[in-house]
Queue: 3 jobs
Job 1
Amino acid sequence: MKNKRFALMIVVLALLFLTAGCSAVDVKRYAGQQPEFDLFDYFIGETRGWGIVQDRKGELLRQFVVDITGYLNDAGELVLDEQFVWSDGEHSERIWTIERTGPHDFSGRAADVVGLAEGAVYGNALYWTYVLNLEARGSTWKVRFDDWMFLQPDGVLLNRATMSKFGFELAQVTIAFQPVEDAGDDDDANN
């Protein structure tokens, strides 16, 4: 009896892993959607994001604001210096270096990212996936992030990320980004 239950459990787990890998939406389906998203153009300069982290039941776990400074380095890669301020007072940082690897494709690295992040942009959408070393409860977890970003009118960029481990969803992160307007430009325009 124990062997049958164990075998059934293995079959159910195998099916879960197989179906988890088959459910991804192809980013190419958004080709032609407007406004067209250019990852490099959007993030060069100052950008601010407001975000929340929810558990898989939808309960709010944390909130944050992230200020991003983006620029091109000497190799033509996009560098994103992300400064997070969390609602509990914690401050954290991530610095991305992102390179264009094809007409629609990108790869990126950061100190807490395992290997390379990979993504593609079509139309108004970016799909971006990576494994992050996440500090939690006094230990480090390797957590997979699947990010979807959609550019909206007026420069608003919506980001929804799913955090998972072993194919099981742990949490969702939702962020709204907007470029920061240079206050000096407004002053010059009014004079």
Job 2
Amino acid sequence: MSNFIFVLDTNKKQSEPIHPASARLLLKQGKATVFRLYPFTIILKEAVTEIPEPLELKIDPGSKTTGLAILQGDKVIFGADLTHRGQAIKASLESRRSLRRGRRSRHTRYRQPRFLNRTRPKGWLAPSLQHRVETTLSWVRKLIRFAPIGSISQELVRFDLQQIENPEISGVEYQQGELFGYEVREYLLNKWDRKCSYCGVENTPLQVEHICPKSKGGSNRISNLCLACEKCNQSKGTQLIEQFLAKKPEVLKRILAQAKKPLKDAAAVNSTRWELFKQLKALGLPVNNGSGGLTKFNRTRLNLPKTHWLDAACVGKIDGLKLKTNKPLLIKAAGHGSRQMCRTNKFGFPSRYVPRLKFVKGFQTGDIVKAIVTTGKKIGNYVGRIAVRSSGSFNISASELVQGISHKYCRTIHQKDGYNYAQ
């Protein structure tokens, strides 16, 4: 079952989302037209006076993918996975820096380095981290425009590191209850990539393992914990890890290094969570929050699979969930292109130039088009993101890249907005 369909009246006022079958009926009867393809939204040809029931938007921020879910009471009517491009931004900045340094070392023409004339404002985030905040906010604003959102819930605390490091602290109720185990276990699952630290087996029940056994003086600190399958855990027993892995020095070296290694993804989420929370509060809607351990506790209790949009639906305190959709909208940030007019090779020398005009035959790179090719070697129907060429022969990224499609066969179905979509 697909997501529910967003509905706007003739004045672009949000109405209650409806079932896809109801939307098809309205379109067939001519009472509505398609307003937007992603997320699919229809606009009615008359005004609606009824006040819709407020919906709740839930967000599960992630370093690579953020989960979004819209709930109508206890019914999940919309889900989406938003994939960020933070690593691509980081790689582009590193590439630009290396090219500039290479030109300086060769004493060729380059922009002078700037050091002491730049100051970072309070709350500054690296571009790859700021991107995560801005793309999430962009989609929150879009969903608020298309649906009657009444409140927002965010998974604010990804990992409560103070409680993980100091489990003996008293006075906090859930700290001594069942949620503490979920906080620690979720942290370890992310840190050890959800597989056995010793043999690398995946998709099997994993147990929390003490690297240095407690009988040998090991502690419960997070740096002394890893994950192991039952077979490895039983084989190791109370041995020191140096004894257990005496014949596997490479594995021993990796485990000892990873035990002290910080969690990169968790650090990215922790760096951006408060900035995202502050920006969400500025939207003027009530904003609630919950911890990562509570999210996993809810998902496990309801026996739901591990996905980003279902994690979002499980944020905060919930009694139960009714899934009215099982096909989330897959959103991938693709960027708006580059303003660089001259492309360079790996050494930083010019290789080709880009036309000044972005539009070719009424299309621009990033538009999602539908091409119905009736003649030639590429007969067929194609739907995907295009890359324009001055010749009018475009490339379409559908399930695979198709090159050399004439603009005469193309029809725009969704204008460029910096994202790719799939269902």
Job 3
Amino acid sequence: MPDEASSGSRRPRRSLGQNFLKDQRVAARIVRACGLTSERTVLEVGPGRGALTRLMVGRCARLILVEKDAGLALDLMHRYREKPGVEVIEGDAATLDLAEALGPDDQGVAVGNLPYNAATPILFNLLEARARFKRAVFMFQKEVARRLAANPGDREYGALSLLVQARSQVEMLFEVPPEGFVPKPKVWSAVIRLTPLEKDIAPQDPGFDRMVHALHSGPRKTARNSLSQGLGISASKAAALLEAAGADPGTRPCCITPLQAADLWMEFSKDLAD
């Protein structure tokens, strides 16, 4: 039966972007940020060697571990097979139906040290099931975390910021140095907490996401010219749409708020329908 030592002997796989958390003080801070209760279901993404897992076993009603690495998933199955309420799913959290994994009635908490090379797809997959989650506490590469938490008008604020903040509140919690991981990455990481909005700002339409990316296709240009370029429409039409949404056509795309983007989509949709 593999124990924690044997799991710890498994070498990180570069192809999966594995950097295992080893700093237990950081792990404890992440778990505290989850606000666990004994009746809550927790879904951990990429438990790896179990730095977070071991702190959560027995502290929640159910602990669902989603691990893509087959060897690590097997280790976790053996290690926790006698622990009631712990389930291991070998699968890719970027494509797995997370609502189905959670179960029919639960509203859970998601947590994880996300691999750098798959963090954004995993985040957006979680947001698809956001109605089923109370909150999520995730570790990202620091630069990505700063973009997620940036305010409109900040240099880091872009399409990613807008799309996530139109669906959830984002809080930057703390940064983690490379020394907290094995192997040591070349960059810093940061932990953020996401709380799904009670009412989405983003319309339930994939066209909204495409429009936001179009708006930010030329981030150094004016919103008018960037939107014109991204949507393939005239600058005058782009200006008219922005003005109807209450946005200044001469501002930068980074200054367009999620609410203005939602109004812009409404105006653009009406224009398409005409």
